[in-house]
Amino acid sequence: MFTEGNTVELKKEYTDDIKKSVVAFANSNGGQLYVGVSNDGAPVGLADADGTMLQITNTIRDSIRPDVTMFTTCERIAMEGKAVILVTVQQGTARPYYLAGKGIRPEGVYVRQGASSVPATDSAIVRMIKDTNGESYEELRSLNQALTFTTLEREFREAEIPLGEAQYKTLGLVDMDGTYSNLALLLSEQCPYSIKLAVFEGDSKAVFRDRYEFEGSALAQLSDCYRIVDRYNRTRAEFDGLKRIDTREYPIEAVREALLNLIVHRDYSFGGSALVSVFDDRVEFVSLGGLAKNISIKDMLLGVSVLRNKNLANVFYRLHLIEAYGTGMPKIMKNYAGYTMQPKVEVSDNAFKITLPNTLLEAQSAVAPEPPRLTGREQDVMDLFADKESIVRRDVEDGLGVSQPMAVKLLRQLVEKGAITKVGDGKRVRYELG
């Protein structure tokens, strides 16, 4: 006789729990399941061993995902002259294995713990996924398999690009077993990540005006967030003859590229939200995750591109949202060519921030200042410059018929207003147009 343990499970007869034991063995170190043996290790045999074996193989095939049949064998053996079914399970290479009706969550994923098959913890599930698929977030299997793709399908339909079962696999949304990846999660309506947008009055966060949060498919977040930023991107109209010229506070293409960077290059292993902050003088885009390994800010500005989420970028590329890899930052900088104020890029270990300055503020500061407002007497003094490059105090006294103190006062007022400039000192002092 023998007893149950970490790699041995005994069943007196067939029960539905057999599938949990197979899942647990495949997710752990493998094991053997005996059907027709009591818990004390004594063989009791099976009246219909062949029928039971068929039932077990069908259950393993139909109830467990991914397909674990290649790691299991099911055979009829004799123990003390009695018919027993022996199911041998090896550790699988596509862990975590789970019950098809439960999904990749604790109630569907089992592991061995002593002589029992118990639900795996969330951390254990994530660890198995990483051990199997590596560290690329978007390629890992999604813990949520109940996904819908209304937005994704609409975007592909409007772009007149086919999106069927073959494309889902080619794009990396599902694996060969039909299991959704984290890429699929990002593009589904169940995407757990969001973008938070806040609007502030002035150039600080002291006065709050409005806030928004964009959820759902990453594609929906892109369009929804752009629409709100565009609402606060005011337009200045100028006329060149009969032609009207509109200028936006923030170049449309620069805003678009900054938002694409926010979504496509984000490190989704962080659970927080991406942030967009709109001020009177700038817009800030903060994405979680620093630069990719071995890439500097200078490299990025030159167009060097190391994609953190290459499959997500590929979907955006197919939808013509990305024209070419590595062109985002050069496009942003090109849109600010000729301006003194330039976009600012800041990077920490876990965050990436792009700041777009308000171009209209620079345009307003470049406009010539209005001339100072003058009194009647002050304008009379300015008229004395009509045929002279400079004047002295005596010219004011004689020209306006005023006293010396009044002439001194008028000249001092004009100097303070910036209309004229005082040159020299003492008896040699004179005044020139400012």
Principal-axis shape equals rod-shaped
In round numbers, the mean pLDDT is: 88
- Beta strands, count: 19
- Strand order, largest beta sheet: 10-9-13-14-16-15
Q: Tell me the fraction of residues in β-strands, as a range.
A: 15-25%
Largest sheet composition: 6 strands, mixed
- Rg on CA atoms, Å: 37 Å
Oligomer: single chain
Approximately how much helix is present in the residues?
25-40%
| First-to-last CA distance | 110 Å
Name the structural class: alpha+beta
- Uncertain residue segments: none
How many DSSP helices?
15
Description:
The protein has about 425 residues and is α+β, with helices and mostly antiparallel strands. It has helices at about 20-25, 50-65, 120-135, 150-160, 165-170, 180-185, 220-230, 250-265, 295-300, 310-320, 330-335, 360-365, 375-385, 395-400, 405-415; strands at about 10, 30-35, 65, 70-80, 80-90, 100, 110-115, 115-120, 195-200, 205-215, 235-240, 245-250, 275-280, 280-290, 345, 350-355, 390, 420-425, 430-434. Strands 10-9-13-14-16-15 form a six-stranded mixed sheet, with helices on one face. Strand 13 and strand 14 form a beta hairpin. Helix 7 (about 220-230) packs antiparallel against helix 8 (about 250-265). It is rod-shaped. The relative contact order is 0.07. The mean pLDDT is about 90.
